[in-house]
Amino acid sequence: MKELLFNLPDGRTLFIREPAIQKMLGYQQSNENDCEAGGILIGRILIENNHFIIDEVSEPYPTDTRKRHRFIRSQKGHQEYFNALWEEYEGRCFYLGEWHTHPEKVPLPSTVDRRGWRENLSLLYETDSLFFIIVGTEKIKVWYGKCGTGEIACMEGGWENERKTSKKTI
Amino acid sequence: MVLCQTQFISFHEAIKLKEENEELASKREIILKRLRDCMPEEAKSFDVFTQGSYAMNTGIKPLDGDFDIDVGLWFDMSREDAGPVEAKEWVFKALEGHTKDVKMKTPCVTVTYAAGYHVDVTVYSATNENCKVYLAKGKTTSKREEKYWDESNPKDLIKEIRDHLTDKDDRRQFRRVVRYLKRWKDVNFKSATGKPSGIALTSCVYHWLDIQKDIDLFNGKVTYRDLDALISLIRSMISRFQTVYEVEGGELVSYPRINVELPVSPWPNLFELMTNKQMVTFKEKLECLLDALEEAKAKSDPTDACEILRKQFGDDFPVPPRPMTGKRSVAPAVLPSTESA
């Protein structure tokens, strides 16, 4: 089973469930002419320990711009998708960040990516943290951003290390 | 890593036999009236008291709906005043014909009602020169050596279990863990024989439970961790099994066995009557339980953890829909549009 678990600097964890991972992996830029894709991360902040779980991700809409090296996510489509889930779960879900793909094995954020994340972290949300996922052709990498301070840190782990990370928690 | 404490508490509420169970109290009254009205003249005077897990605050609802009501009769007499089976015959005579099914069993007289519950009436000799209390054992048809007064003081036991642990919240965790384990037994041991008794499991928790809680240093708030309490208890139980050897068909065969003492005099080993084969099964089931508890704890999503726990504890263990384990947000987030490269 493909699940991902990351340890946050403050002792909490981020858990990404399989359905969300499968959806993102469906957009990997494995072929030369595959375009970038992306969407938003939606999930829970657990009542019992404040840990994060990503349950759902949105997928590209026709209103988004998809190029080999660029992805512009419009608000349209993604906002409606989020609102529908929010209704269905009676408010028990949060916007938890963004994901997009890169045509490289081990993804690294571009200047545009970093600038966009910092801007996003300066906005007001009900969560104190946002996550930014880049899906490379061989590795998924996740960055953790603190709302307010705008601090961003790369988190250890990724699907190649799945076994190692999950073992740590036992 | 999850604890599922909310779900453990709901599970406890679902299985707990509440003290104010009116239905059981009225059923008990019916039989007491019968005993008072129909006790034969030769019988000594007696007092009545409630015993069993219900009195110890560790009772759980039965899975099959067959409620078990325990009534103890405290006869004001010494062991020399009457034989054990003689005293049980007084009770049997008083109850005979009350329902179609009244039986004298070795430790009690059992009255079974068609409505699906039964009452076990036990007989005690309560006024002895050594201040000890004895339970009448044996049936009319038993051999002479199987009819005897057996030292057993249920009032001491009830007090010992009821008052176990001084902190009232620690005591609550103790009772919850007893109930979890008893329900686990009912779910996992389907055949009538070979299951550990409720009092044996209660005694294991009494002796070996290591209370698990967190205390918030800032506000003093105490959070109990029942899942951790179960993990440490079951681990401790498994570690207490010892190997015994039996000669079978000329060969030495090894078996695991565990002993646990009743917390009051005469401290009998409550696993004594389990056969070696039953012990093997018991240990395997405990190991299976421990694996499940640890697997559940390692999960990141409480819903996944509860699904594992439900397999061990049965359908009364709740599996929350995933969203219900998350906090509620005030309003849907307003998304920005974003650019990535």
From TrEMBL, chain A:
Domain JAB: 27-137
Annotated GO biological process: proteolysis
GO molecular function ontology, one term from the record: metallopeptidase activity
Keyword Transmembrane: no
Database matches in InterPro entries: JAB_dom_prok
Superkingdom of this protein's organism: Bacteria
Keywords: Hydrolase, Metal-binding, Metalloprotease, Protease, Zinc
Protein name (Swiss-Prot/TrEMBL): JAB domain-containing protein
Organism from which the protein derives: Mesobacillus selenatarsenatis (strain DSM 18680 / JCM 14380 / FERM P-15431 / SF-1)
Biological classification of the source: Bacteria, Bacillati, Bacillota, Bacilli, Bacillales
Automatic annotation (TrEMBL), chain B:
GO biological process, one term: nucleotide metabolic process
Keywords, alphabetical: Antiviral defense, ATP-binding, Magnesium, Metal-binding, Nucleotide metabolism, Nucleotide-binding, Nucleotidyltransferase, Transferase
Keyword Oxidoreductase recorded: no
Domain Cyclic GMP-AMP synthase DncV-like nucleotidyltransferase residues, every copy: 48-124
Pfam families: DncV-like_NTFase
Keyword Phosphoprotein: no
UniProt catalytic activity: GTP + ATP = 3',3'-cGAMP + 2 diphosphate
InterPro entries linked to this entry: DncV-like_NTFase, NT_2-5OAS_ClassI-CCAase, NT_sf
Region (Disordered): 317-341
Gene Ontology molecular function: ATP binding; metal ion binding; nucleotidyltransferase activity
Protein name in the entry: Cyclic GMP-AMP synthase
Originating species: Mesobacillus selenatarsenatis (strain DSM 18680 / JCM 14380 / FERM P-15431 / SF-1)
